[in-house]
Amino acid sequence: MPLLGITASRIAELLASPSPGVPAYRWLAEGLQLLIADGRIPSGYALPSERRLTESLAVSRTTVTKAYSVLGEAGFLTARQGSGHLATLPAGSRHLGVGGALLPDGEVAEDFLDLTCAASRAPAGTAEAYAAAVAKLPRYLAGTGYATGGLPELRELIAARYAERGLPTTPDQIMVVSGALAGVSLAVRALTRPGQPVLVETPSYPNAIDAVRRSGARLIPLPVEPTGWDPELTTATIETTKPAAAVMILDFHNPTGSLMPDAQRASLATALRRAGTVAIIDETMLEVRLDDPPTPLPLAAYLSRCILVGSSSKSHWGGLRTGWLRVPRALLPRLLQARIADDLGAPFLEQLVLTEMLSHSAALHPERRDELRAARKVMTDRLPEAIPGASWVVPAGGLSLWVGLPAARASQLAIAAQKVGLLISPGPQFAATHGLERFIRLPYKDPAPAIVEAMSRLGRAWRSQQELPSSTRGQRPRSVVA
Asked: What is the distance between the alpha carbons of residues 333 and 328, in angstroms, rounded to a whole number?
């Protein structure tokens, strides 16, 4: 099978213009390194021959030879007999999602495929955004470095995005935090007291459930089916329990991928308003739109006592660790006071990086959207063979499938999968109380070859545990989920 490659003419289109005073070989090496790191030249792709690149860029052969040598020394290029030069990454195969992304190095082997983390690589342009941010950083160094609400220019961009979505917002309503999870935790602690009832969905994002649990709240579980929420059950649960707060994910719900429509949001808002409940809505997956479903209004357009939680981790990159809250003015003093007792503010550099990124687009990068669509298709094509009889609803957005198994053996399957080098998250990890043994979550955030191999290993794991007793004999699958 011939190697995939990138043409010299395409590289010429992608490279930035040479910088004055920078040696040609250094400009070329740094430009190619950036393209490989960004994924615009995928790892494993063949680069053009030195002769073709020399002709396309109108540079000397020595320039290209030296640039390729620099890339090789940095680990971004390998020379293979008969195949020329191949793009690589210094981290080896880890960029495909192998190993335990959320575990310390060494806890699992490098060749493990990790489907417990629903987050993707950085999009094209990330390194440039960091470079621009570093260039702007000196103007802030004369200050204290603290900004409890966040950098004004970032807050303005986030507020403008809410306005575009039909929700007028001013920058003073925005509070920048160190990720969505930190935002959810802050809001719950600031607005509830230990022992008060707090509504949480089940299944839901496990770390958010744990954040509510750690606050001392009494969890009120609200079931979410693979097809979404039951409006009557939702209203009845709220009316009966009158929760102090409700922590929910309405946009490409994690893990089911469901998107709550406008009519149902209006009904939910009415029930919450009557109960005096503050809504804390996690919109982390909002911008991960893969298809074109109708775009509902934010819940805050229907309910004034509503805190919206946003994040750059899914739409841009988890390494930014930057999120935000949109807070009603009446609740701002309580949130700010709680924030001061926490960490005083988010790091400036990452805020500057996100400002650069949002100034270009708040949405998922088009190239990344295409990659996710392709990976989703590969997974749905391979799943029937891996687990005959499995069921799922293809989500219009988000990063994973919520897969129903033919039998309630999710935890046992996760243990069997680990034995064949695959890490998956069984349904019980997403449960607010118990149950969900018939489900697993499968992120499709990796390139197609990794998805193909993951489905092969999943199939082997499923077949290996079919004849075993249902008991896991005290074993527990890996519990770290993102």
From this structure: 10
CA angle 432, 438, 440 (to 5 degrees): 75
3-state class (DSSP) for residue 217: coil
Residue where the block lists tokens 């959320």: 102
Q: CA-to-CA distance for 412 and 427, rounded, in angstroms?
A: 11
Q: How far apart are CA 451 and CA 386, in angstroms?
A: 12
Q: Distance of alpha carbon 75 from its chain centroid, rounded?
A: 27
Is residue 53 a contact partner of residue 41, using CB atoms and an 8 Å limit? Answer: no
60, 364, 394 from 291: Cα distances, Å: 46, 12, 10
Structural domains in the chain plus CATH codes: 8-90 (1.10.10.10), 113-122+365-464 (3.90.1150.10), 146-360 (3.40.640.10)
Q: Tell me the HSE value of 207 on the side-chain side, using a 13 A CA sphere.
A: 16
* Distance from C-alpha of 351 to C-alpha of 353, rounded to nearest angstrom: 5
**Structure confidence by residue, pLDDT tens digits, 234-277:** 999 999 999 999 999 999 999 999 999 999 999 999 999 999 99
Cα atoms in the 13 Å half-sphere on the side-chain side of 115: 30
Output the CA–CA distances (angstroms, integers) from residue 447 to 222, 292, 360, 444, in the order listed. Answer: 34, 22, 25, 8
Please tell me the pTM assigned to this model: 0.84
Whether the CB-CB separation of 390 and 416 falls below 8 Å is answered with no
Strands (E), 18-108: 77-80, 84-87
